[in-house]
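The aim of this short unit is practical: by the end, you should be able to scan a pair of folded records and say something sensible about each. We start with the first protein, listed as its amino acid sequence and then its structure tokens.
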Amino acid sequence: MATRTPRVLLRTLAGITAAFTLLLQTGCSSVFFYPDQVTYITPDRLNLEYEDVFLDTPDGETLHGWWLPAQSDPKGTVYFLHGNAQNISSHIMNVAWLPEKRYNVFLIDYRGYGRSTGAPDIEGTLHDAEAGLRWLIDRPDVQNQPLFLLGQSLGGALGTALASEWVKRGEQPPLDGVILDGTFSGFRAIAREKLGNFWLTWPLQFPLSWTITDEYEATEMIGDISPVPVMVIHSERDGIIPFHHGERLYEAAAEPKRFLQTDTPHASTFVIPGYQAAVLGFMDANGE
């Protein structure tokens, strides 16, 4: 036993050292992505009509998505960008209620998620988000209807960057609204915060966070979405992305904007009918 404890400690320290070395070599952008290839549920199990979509990216990846048509005369279309774990089949419940409310929905998996090819990184997933939007706007049943972007957690950060560039470039059709739910205020900002919360990584919070690009900090880009209306949603009980991130995003956004303070765990907003109604009210008001 006297020799076992030092050996276990040495192995543990060796593992930590190896992990830190890998982080220093590759940066820590991988902390944003936790994909898997498990199919948790398909839309038909939720009594939803759907279409499997496969689209190619400019850099040679193939992305998988689901098109969910509105159940009656559509009011508009929602482009959904999901959070950082699992894949669309585990996130679909966040938007499965929208077709009944007369909204089409399109959701995609980023590279490396679900049935999409490749491996995720920040630049790649940003390209994937735009590729999905470009596929969507070419659908005849989407054209001449209101178009909204809904991003949750990581998807909100990707959506903020996409929407700001879309507006600055004067892309058509214009977005009618952007909804950000449980979104962090920036890639570098949240990485530094998470690293600083753990005593083993606390000394490395600055050097490791500097390996992450600061070109896509949401607080610096959200103001460029104006004059497209923005709705920021954040829960005071969010244990993954603290509430102050939502406050920072809202403060940085330009008018017109709205803040919805919620009271659910992370990425659980739409289990509450009242929060669904608030988002529907935002879309109905800006889709006329």
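Turning to the second protein, read its sequence before its tokens, just as you did above.
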Amino acid sequence: MSTYVPLIDLTRGDTLECQHAGAIAVVDTAGRLLAHAGDPQAMTFTRSTLKALQALPFMEADGPAKLGFDQRDIAMLCASHSGEPMHVAQVQHMLDRAGLSYKRLQCGCHVPYYVELGVGPAPAHIDERHHNCSGKHSGFLAYCVQHGLSLEDYLDPAHPLQEAIRRDVARAAGVPPQDLRLGIDGCSAPNYAMPLAGLARAYARLASGAQDGEFGASFAQLADAMVAHPELVSGTGRNDEAFMRAGRGDWVSKVGADGVQAIASRSRGQGIAIKIADGNKTALFAASVAALDQLGWLDERQREELLPWRAEVIANWRGTPVGERKPVFRLQAG
């Protein structure tokens, strides 16, 4: 934990009540560290920020064209979606193209996020398609269908799909495959911890799209899909949708569970990776906006659009302001 520094303070009245520590790395496509707070090499589980990189074997094998996936399907490969009807319908489209039932999905199921957020009532039936990772899993299955691989064990780290993912994730992040630390994600898929700067570099490359010398065509399709359909990547009223819309086509954004966020600028060829040590999402979003502002990525309109995600004023249930949430870090030059 010594790799983390205070990022966000919460005060009640004039007294410090909570402090959220973490680390930030800002990196270009070549892996050069441009700015940081805390240790940019902090080993961090990537969680759902990994999804666009987990799609690389499928993209590199021209899977979308061969199975008839459209741009909306490609966005769903990268999604931590809310399980809204539009998301479930898109997952079903992906499964139909692969010729599979939703019962092949091994992600499990949970109450859709949109219900928890109060966007709408719970559906009469909840199944694996409502899981926030079902788009990623549909892509996993599609790859297996394309290559004639077994479906029953597609989440086994030793499965050819997962071995291909580990290889491509390591290449994208500039990290030796053996240095990726294996863990199992909430959806039962293999996930990897890597240096925070490696995640930032991977996102800088993702955002650079066709300019990338190794994964250019794949990164271009993935980034274009995410930016064109942020509502599919996340959902109504959620942060990745808000961030990418505020970015006006320039930002590629993806949140992960337990306090991880990656944001990259297509025009700058730069990526930001942030980890909040205690996993607090509100602090994560506040730190993300503060980092964007310190880097000079925000104009006045964008500051206004992202004001709710700064969450500066802490109010009680009557709406009375009782404290503040404020950034306490300054990014240091790399």
